[in-house]
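Today's session is about reading a structure prediction critically. Students often jump straight to the picture, but the first step is always the sequence itself: look for stretches that repeat, for charged clusters, for runs of hydrophobic residues. Only then move on to the predicted structure, which in these notes is written as discrete structure tokens rather than atom positions. Here is the chain we will use throughout the hour.
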Amino acid sequence: MTENSSNIKLDNATLSMFDDVKTSMTISIIYMMVTAINLVGNGLSMWILLFRMSPKTASIIFMINLTLTDLALGTALPFQIAYQLQGYHWTLGPGMCSFLSLVFYTNMYCSILTMMAIGIDRYLGIVWPMQFRGTRKRKCIAVFSCFVMWGLVLTVLHPLMTTDLTFDIPKLGITTCFDVLKKNMLPNQLAWATFLFSMVFVLFLFPFCITTFCYVSVIRKLASDCRTAKKQRAIRLAVVVLLVFTLCFAPNNILLLYHSVLRLFYKQSIYTAYKLSLSFSCLNSCLDPFIYYFASKDFRQKLRQILRLQSLVSADSMRMERKESMYSNQCTFEGQEREQGKLCLMPGTSQRKEME
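Below is the predicted structure for this chain, in token form.
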């Protein structure tokens, strides 16, 4: 944060970041991989969730909302890649800078809140199944919750919509986008602290605690019941979701809090580490389609049908046909030896005929 572009007082850590080509290339490569996997995986997931899966349960509604935010990130990342490859030089103007920055951070925090909502839905369905059996009521709550989540995120991030986030640095010959924020973006230091800490505590830490509680409760509930293969898969899935949530979002938001405290009160910076963690947080948008695949049997079947692979039912049928064919061939072979006194026994037959 600094005063304005005509009175530049950037610290050495920030200036060195803009000159660090290796970090810029690393971030660009991560964004390229994320974009490719994101658009393909989430595009296919959205098609399945919207047009192939019915009825639309509360879980599917939350998955659609999560996929929508992931796709929004996938469409915004190419602009960020171009910005990085040009040495942190933004050429698309202040309006696009504000819009794409809003899309970027809205995706992150809507994803966090949606994963929290999915965790709550699973917690209620597994730990308290009798009290929350109303499918239609849960669907209405899910739709309403999605609107509340978007409203909350846009309210907290409102300053991004009303501020010029570009910043000219004549010394380096570049115009940055969101990497250097003007102090007049918000009226005073208290407003800055409220804005940054709201992003960390309201949009991350509180949902993180709720999500952790829900999935730990689900794991404990399933582990205490009789162990079946289906429940073991559900436990593993809960552990995976919790790990993905923690590894993708926790480092970025912890570093944001640490960087904000250093910047506001000690005039120091760890912005390079924060930028790297921000790129790794985008990996979550690539992993969501794989979580859907392992979480929903119906999703797996629809995906296999689209990709012209065998569904679980057809695979079982083919195995039965092969087994019957094997027995048929065996009987044909044995029929050829009837003259030697051997008779064919069909599978399942318990009686044995005496040798002729």
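Discussion point for the tutorial: The domain at 12-306 is CATH 1.20.1070.10 (Rhopdopsin 7-helix transmembrane proteins).
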